[in-house]
Amino acid sequence: MHTWTFLTNHAQVLLCIARSQHMTAKEIAEVVGITERAVQRLIRDLEESGYIVGVRVGRQNRYVIRIDHPMRHPAQAGHLIGALIDLLGAGNS
Question: To the nearest whole number, what is the mean pLDDT of the chain?
Answer without folding.
Answer: 92
